[in-house]
Automatic annotation (TrEMBL), chain A:
Gene3D superfamilies: 1.20.1260.10. The lineage of its organism: Bacteria, Bacillati, Bacillota, Bacilli, Bacillales. Transmembrane segments: none annotated. It comes from the Bacteria. SUPFAM superfamilies: Ferritin-like (SSF47240). Belongs to the manganese catalase family. This is Spore coat protein JC. InterPro entries: Ferritin-like, Ferritin-like_SF, Mn_catalase, Mn_catalase_dom. It holds the Pfam family Mn_catalase.
TrEMBL record, chain B:
Keywords: Capsid protein, Virion. It comes from Pontibacillus salipaludis. The lineage of its organism: Bacteria, Bacillati, Bacillota, Bacilli, Bacillales. This is Spore coat protein CotJB. Residues 11-86 form the Protein CotJB domain.
């Protein structure tokens, strides 16, 4: 089971109300390479992957939920005081019509989250390479959002999250090596 | 949460976040380096430090965790500290 802890993994601050940035940032909430996809992808792969890497998938999957909460906090803080006019000007008029200020699992273009973002092949190497690619894509997305953002407080949190993607990618690469070693040990001539 | 929080709230919270970050990092590292004796020593040392800081936080601001992982005051005080997106 899971225990919730009533704190963010890393402090989230924003300089000002900025629904335009929220619109970009929602990509990491409900987009293909976002934090929801990441958490569900890793936790779902655990059941059929060799025991040696189940701990890692559990722990990274759990950390992704902490990141999801950070993104939610950023989006909430960037939009909570926005007027309908400001939402409309930021391209969030359609979002406002359906959800008011509520968060929704959608990408920056407004498409709802879908399970087709997640692969589960059942082949440990295929799944781990999928995970490495997902981390690299998420890292790149954080960089593109930082490039679009002029909010130094927001960028502090985004840079932290970008660095976490690098660590996760690194750990998944090590997991691949662990499985390759294991596989090679099982081959007898 | 009606009253503004004192700067000491943010200081203690950030101290906990820093210690817990070390624990997250060591956890993932140990998942792929399970025989690093020194890292396990650090992990256990920081785990102890984290528990100590959270006890201090909870005495002042209320529970951090639920389902019996934190103690409750009277009345039930799960709502007493602000939620993470409110600070």
């Amino acid at each position: 089971m899971w225990y919730y802890e009533k704190k963010l993994q890393y402090p989230v601050r924003v300089s000002s109300c900025n629904p335009q940035l929220a619109k970009y940032l929602i990509e990491q909430y409900g987009g293909a390479d976002g934090e929801l996809s990441a958490a569900l992808r890793y936790l779902n792969q655990r059941y059929t992957i060799p025991d040696k890497v189940v701990g890692l998938l559990t722990d990274i999957g759990t950390e992704e939920f902490a990141h999801l909460e950070m993104i939610a906090t950023m989006v909430y803080k960037l939009t909570k005081d926005a007027t309908p006019e400001q939402m409309k000007a930021a391209g969030l008029g359609a979002h406002y019509a359906n959800h008011e200020h509520a968060l929704y699992y959608e990408n920056a273009a407004g498409s709802a989250w879908t399970a087709t973002y997640i692969a589960a092949k059942g082949d440990p190497i295929a799944d781990l390479y999928e995970d490495i690619a997902a981390e690299e894509k998420a890292r790149a997305t954080y960089q593109w959002i930082i490039n679009l953002s002029d909010d130094p407080d927001l960028n502090d949190g985004l840079k932290y999250l970008r660095e976490r993607e690098i660590i996760h990618s690194q750990r998944f690469r090590e997991a691949v090596e662990i499985l390759k070693e294991e596989r090679d040990r099982k081959i007898f001539f | 949460m009606n009253q503004p929080l004192p700067p000491s709230y943010y200081e203690l919270l950030e101290e906990i976040q820093a210690v817990d970050f070390v624990l997250v990092e060591l956890t993932l590292y140990l998942d792929t380096h399970p025989e690093d004796y020194e890292a396990i020593g650090q992990f256990n040392q920081f785990a102890q430090q984290s528990k100590k800081l959270k006890k201090q936080y909870e005495q002042q601001y209320g529970p951090l965790r639920q389902y019996g992982e934190s103690y409750s005051g009277y009345p039930w005080n799960w709502n007493s500290a602000p939620w993470p997106w409110q600070v």
